[in-house]
Fold this protein.
Amino acid sequence: MATGTFTEHGWGTLVPVAPDRWAFVPRSLPPSLDLSWDFVGQIAAADRAATELASITRQLPDPQLLVEPFLKREAVSSSRLAGLQATLSDLCIFETASAPSTVRSLAADVREVARYVHVLEYGVRRAAAGGITLRLLRELHGRLLKGLHTAGRGSAGEFRRAHAWVGLAEDNSATRLAAPPGALPEALNALERFLQAPSPLPPLVRAALIHYQFAAIHPFARANGRVGRMLIALLLGRERVLPQPLLYLSTALECQHAEYERLLLTVSQRGEWSPWIRFFLQLVVTTARDGVRRADSLLTLRATYRGRVAGARSCDLLMKLLDHLFAHPVVTIPGVAKLLDVTPRTARLTIRKLETAGLLEEATGRQRYQMFIGRSILKALED
């Protein structure tokens, strides 16, 4: 590690852990920030963008029409940043598939993404009910890695007990060693105190500080990135930045991940918080604007679809199924029968009406274990 790149103004200290090996231990939050008028203006712009996204939910009969698909997009993007390869279509098929051959054919990566969805949903509920604690973060980590092979890489749900590199290579060219295991309790307890203490800082600035600190501590042997991105979602939910959990940053982060890593390192090396916080605020603006565009597209599509089936027989069943498709774009006959509380025959007829209207298509080519996909909805979510 190039220790000369860490200045006396860096946000932490370097401690020797072996000959020519140094680990970085971040200071405790908060830093002293100079929030200039320009800075305040950028905070206000991010708040406005989030407010505009929040206003979309007021147009919905049920916020879940957007909450579930946006959460699934986050799961796919965050998992992709962790090296897992799965699309939103893969995820929706996996969640719906009943044919053993279909389930087996889907890669293990898709299963991990599906687990991410459930863990994030659980975390949002827990954070809203009981706050964000170290215990919750360990629990999320444990649920995320439950059943996965972790030999030699630490236990699921436990803070690491060995050194960890933060960077691309486990040699001197790597960015740095994270805080040594012996320094974790003090660093994490300080982070928890900051998480739970009242603060005069704007919520988005506070979220940026906490995310950096978690990343710098690097508390787990693996999956720190995914848990750290979950932490952003929990923070934004706890601070009521939006009334519904719709603001997830991983998709925007995918496009600028190198800059993200560089700015986090700049905080550690030189204590330069402003560039990182500005970057985080811009991620919020970009994400919120994309969310508004995507939500408008989905709402327009919903209105178009409802117009196509309005006045048809069993209109109420069709409308209920249509709304379900925006959260779950892949359905089966047994699933629809359960959703609508009807017989399989009625479910099949209802699906057929949406097929005839061009809103669903059968994707398997089989007579058994059929799956029906709303491709226009998936396209609006994935584009």
